[in-house]
Amino acid sequence: MAPKGSFENNFANYSEEAASHILNKTKDGNAIPYLDLENLKGRKISFLCGDAGPLALATVISYRLGSRKNELPDYKSLVQRLMALSSLLNDSPDEVLYGKSGYLFALLFVNKHIPGKEVIPSNHIEKAQPYISMIELRSFIKPTLEWLINHKFPSGNFPSSLGSGSGDRLVQWCHGAPGFVPLCLLAHKVFDDDNYLRIALQCGEVIWERGLSTKGYSICHGVSGNAYAFIQLYQATKKPVHLYRACCFMEWCALERPGTELHAPDRPASLYEGLTGRLYLAEDLLRVSEAKFPAFTL
Ligand SMILES: [Zn+2]
Known about the structure:
Layout: H1 14-23, H2 52-65, H3 75-84, H4 100-113, H5 122-128, H6 134-149, H7 177-191, H8 194-210, H9 223-237, H10 240-255, H11 275-286
Zinc ion binds next to loops.
């Protein structure tokens, strides 16, 4: 049930119904076996594509379940496994999807969801990536941002990747304007430069005009991910138009009109490709000021 004063609509029970649809497909409605901790390969360290994701989630779940019926190992042994992944740091890229930033996210995720304990010590977190100073932000990050922004199309959209021949075509979180919205809003906050806000708002217009992606409803390359760009614009500006747009995109995802998803997801229940991402969005819209793009922001 939506809290009083929040967005109310015809889909008040949407996430509950959709979630039970997924869980009823498993043998006993239990999602924990999907963590599959025994089959982790020990080769990749990130939250989204490596071992750190399942280990971080298992750590938090095991801690929360405590002495209740808990088929997971004790959370302290899971923390040890998570920290041992740092031996792979030197051979890992820097990026969030496969590398060090993704490992850093997993460590911060554990500390956030087990509050007051600093389960992962700060010296271990610094090993993953020392926090960047303001001087480094100005000397390296700002020029990189400017360089990226120079690649903007006249429409306000951005290329899907460097050297891509596909042109001004894709409008999705993983390729194009929607991913630039959180980047430019953060840059606006850090550097206090209105130009970044202007670019984020321009991306919002592109997403409103062209963001009903035919790839479907996922948060990675579908409509629910594009809805997050509107949530972020709403959080930054408090202008209701962005919240209205986010709700319209959510409604589109919930209705699933025939023919609007041309590429069915390979993993229909997954967070980034499937129904779980939509559920995350539906829940976030109930508490929109605290909403955060999952597995990317804390
Ligand atoms: Zn994608």
